[in-house]
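re: the backbone from monday

yeah here it is again, tokenized this time
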């Protein structure tokens, strides 16, 4: 009986640890602009500044820029290029939709649209990325847009009229496999 109790305690501890680990390594997919997407905002640059201020960005998270290919793009630029919307010497440029950017380092990151004068009229965003720590706030992976509208990942039509499917999530994230691994180890321990 005592052996069974100790095995149950080990099982409970392993399960609690696996769920805690999952919450500390969970990644968030931020849909830039939520339902608005990545476009010229009617409210100017304040639109994306407000959106960014309501988010918590952590190393490992992704930014999902949804826009019409050929009409917009997304470029990461330096702080010096961000203010005046300088489109030369970008750090990276993603001309095709949807653009997904993985946040790999902490600090301030600057993104603009380099098409004509889009940046000057507000299509730009600054984000502050926190380092990944064990005390990072728990977030919901793949959070949907905060407003009810056609989600950016819904099927859309390309300029040629063909249907473009949403991006797929082919493999489960690392954090989803950790609880399963611990459960398998616990089951093997019992049998």
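seq for it, each position gets an aa:
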């Amino acid at each position: 009986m005592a052996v069974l109790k100790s095995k149950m305690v080990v099982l409970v501890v392993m399960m609690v640890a696996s769920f805690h680990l999952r919450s500390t390594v969970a990644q968030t997919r931020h849909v830039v602009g939520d339902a608005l997407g990545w476009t010229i905002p009617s409210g100017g640059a304040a639109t994306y500044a407000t959106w960014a201020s309501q988010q918590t960005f952590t190393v490992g998270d992704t930014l999902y820029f949804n826009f019409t290919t050929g009409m917009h793009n997304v470029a990461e630029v330096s702080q010096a290029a961000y203010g005046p919307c300088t489109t030369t010497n970008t750090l990276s440029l993603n001309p095709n939709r949807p653009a997904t950017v993985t946040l790999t380092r902490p600090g301030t990151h600057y993104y603009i649209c380099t098409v004509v004068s889009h940046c000057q009229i507000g299509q730009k965003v600054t984000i502050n990325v926190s380092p990944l720590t064990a005390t990072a706030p728990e977030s919901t992976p793949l959070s949907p847009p905060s407003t009810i509208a056609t989600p950016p990942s819904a099927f859309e039509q390309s300029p040629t009229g063909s249907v473009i499917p949403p991006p797929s999530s082919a493999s489960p994230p690392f954090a989803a496999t950790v609880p399963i691994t611990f459960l398998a180890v616990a089951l093997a321990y019992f049998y």
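Residues 170 and 176 are 13 Å apart (CA to CA). The longest helix spans residues 2-25.
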